[in-house]
């Protein structure tokens, strides 16, 4: 039953993307966003491990992410 429902949902999403180009573009951008977010987290983890943020004059990784990268406070609080 679950496989059948997943198939129906996949068909429905495909129909939506054909009918609504903006929806299709949003799906494409969301996929890119997820890929970029993963890559950014990996880089931030390496920056943290090497303490590069300190060499750049930031007291903490949070400060680096917030001020150095210009990301929001909610993103800065994310556990990397």
In short:
With 80 residues, the protein is mostly helical.
Q: Overview of this structure, please?
A:
The chain is elongated. The chain has one domain (2-76). It contains five helices and no strands. The model has no long low-confidence stretch (mean pLDDT 85). Helix 1 (2-19) packs across helix 2 (21-49). The protein has helices at residues 2-19, 21-49, 52-55, 61-68, 73-76. By secondary structure, it is mainly α.
Write out key terms for the chains shown.
80 residues; 5 helices
Listing every helix as H and every strand as E from the N terminus to the C terminus, the arrangement reads HHHHH
Q: How many alpha or pi helices?
A: 5
Number of strands: 0
Helix proportion of residues, in percent? over 70%
Ends apart, CA distance between termini:
38 Å
The gross shape turns out to be elongated
Measured on Cα atoms, how large is the radius of gyration?
19 Å
Structural class: mainly alpha
Structurally, how many domains make up the residues?
A: 1
The percent range for strand residues is: under 5%
Overall pLDDT score: 85
